[in-house]
Amino acid sequence: MPAASGLGYRSTVFTPHGEGLNMSRAIKLIGTLGVALFVACASQTQELNQSQDAAVAVALRRGQFELSCPNAQAIMLSRTMLEPVAWQGTERAEYTVGVEGCGKKASYIVVCPQSASGCVAAASKDNSTIQQ
């Protein structure tokens, strides 16, 4: 048996199915998956940025009406991408927007579907009565 000097030997990673995969292919595969994950995260950030202004505007209009305060101001509290509800469903951006003015404040959950125009603002769970 030859000495383990590294000459003529290849490092091999075995998959759960017992198939061999040489290290250079394994590293390329891991690199490709890493790039795909990075691109997916970047595109989600772009989608969130794309709908954010519309989401804030929708929440602000609803807040100004409900608070009876045309001078109310809105602030983005949080944002996230929601997975499709069904297979091949629509991805949605969800924003939580706070609105404050005239001594009152409220928060709204705003959902913007990515395949359609427009956003919908709903009162958050704790908005049963507007805080004064």
**Integer-rounded radius of gyration:** 25 Å
Q: Count the domains.
A: 1
Distance between the termini: 84 Å
Number of helices: 1
Tell me, briefly, the overall form: elongated
Order of helices and strands: EEHEEEE
Question: Helices and strands: which structural class?
Answer: alpha+beta
Uncertain ranges: none
Helicity range of the residues? Answer: 25-40%
The overall strand count is 6
| Major sheet attributes | 4 strands, antiparallel
Strand order of the largest sheet: 3-4-5-6
Explain this structure to me?
With 132 residues, the chain is α+β, with helices and mostly antiparallel strands. It has one domain (13-123). It contains 1 helix and 6 strands. The chain has one helix at 23-66; strands spanning 12-14, 20-22, 73-82, 92-101, 104-113, 120-123. Strand 4 and strand 5 (104-113) form a beta hairpin.
